[in-house]
Amino acid sequence: MISRFQDTAEKAARRLISEPDGNILSILVTGSVFDGSAKDDSDVDLCVLWSENSSLRRPMLVEGVEIDIFCDGVKRIWTELFRAQQRFIVWMYAHASVIYDPFGIGSQLMSEAVITWGRGRKPPTKQMLFRQHCEAVDSLRTIKRIEDRKSVV
Q1: E-assigned strands of 51-115?
Q2: Which three-class secondary structure state does DSSP give residue 4?
Q3: Rounded CA separation 138/100 (Å)
Q4: Contacts (Cβ under 8 Å, ≥6 apart) of 34
């Protein structure tokens, strides 16, 4: 990753994490910054996983660099990986690197996306579906623990 863009992506991630109602579980960088093809006028694409069950796309400007933020709920991304119909989403997660991932959820999703991307549209085996289901349940349990901790505080 080009260092100027890497620094900008990390600053954007810190800004997102500091937002009071973010519920952010993981932040990944993807696109031209990830694959090394970024040019001087490139933007930075961030995938933000949050505990909300919704999707949102929002822009941000950090040090004159446009940041394109794709916020998605963990449930939605797991569903897309199961179905492998939204090829762009699968591609984004299969071609990304972690910036922030304290619970390991983003890394799990990236690993699964690499497998899904690699197998194309072939139907998954029962073992793959079972493994994906177990990983999704683990992710959802982690989210529940996070939410429980927040309600105690």
Answers
A1: 55-62, 65-73, 96-100
A2: helix
A3: 18
A4: 1, 45, 95, 96, 97
Q: What is the pTM of this model?
A: 0.74
Distance CA 139, CA 153 (A): 22
Give residue 45's Cα distance to chain centre: 10
pLDDT in tens, 113-140: 888 787 654 545 556 656 666 776 677 6
CA distances for 95 relative to 22, 36, 66, angstroms: 24, 11, 20
End-to-end CA distance of the chain: 38
What's the rounded Cα separation, in Å, for the pair 128 and 112?
A: 10
Sheet holding 24-30, edge to edge: 55-62, 65-73, 44-50, 24-30, 96-100
More confident residue, 38 or 69: 69
The rounded Cα 55 to chain-centroid distance in angstroms is 12
Residue 129, both tokens: 């579906």
Cβ atoms of 42 and 5 closer than 8 Å: yes
Quick one: pLDDT at residue 123?
A: 47
Kindly report the number of other CB atoms within 10 A of residue 88's CB atom: 9
- Helices 105-119, 126-152: axis angle to 10 degrees equals 160
One-letter identity of residue 97:
S
